[in-house]
Amino acid sequence: IRQECFTHVHSLPLKYFDTRPVGRIVTRITNDVESLHELYANILSRLFKNVVKVLGLAIVMISLNLKLALCAFIFIPFIIGLTLLFRSISRRVHRSIRTRVSLLNTFLSENLSGMKIIQIFGKEEKKYNEFKNKSLELYYSHIKQLSVFAFFRPMIYFIGQLALCLVMYEASKEVLNVTMTIGTAYVFVNYISSFYEPIQELAEQFSTIQNALASSEKIFTLLDEANDIVEK
Length: 232
Description:
Elements: H1 2-11, H2 14-19, H3 22-64, H4 66-73, H5 76-113, H6 115-120, H7 124-176, H8 182-223
Helix pairs in contact: 1-3, 3-4, 3-5, 3-8, 4-7, 5-7, 5-8, 7-8
């Protein structure tokens, strides 16, 4: 993808470079491609493993005791709703981060290459303040990202603990009524802990996925740029 972006940039007409700062193009080919690499290299394999684990545990729990399994699954709609809400907010935040990174790189590229002019006219302090503002904007975007994630991750954990409490309550009733052995109840409690663990992991991976999706939007916007000048 990085090679394709580089080749494509070389094929674009000169007017494209009149309206796009070099720093922004560099960000697309370096930072954004790296975010996409992170998704393919680390996240997708773990994502597949966690999905298989959740489905496998769900089948085993249903086969052991349908009633307790339904108690364990009753909170899943809440998790889905929370995830959809998180995805909507998180995507906007990640898109903002990618834009801020691009603006900061653009500013650095232009000002470092034009350092002689800045020093000749004594504009160092002005440029420092501009850089500080852009850097703070990126910082606050990251804080927003952390704030969203800091709410989402504990909520998933809390829902998992609620499901565990409900299952333990129902299992203890069945043990006292001698309709279930203590061994089966113990195994089921262990299974539900293992069931919500990969769901929490999926929640943690969501941040990287959203970051990669935001980066891919920027990359494909670059690749979709058409060359108006066609070689005969």
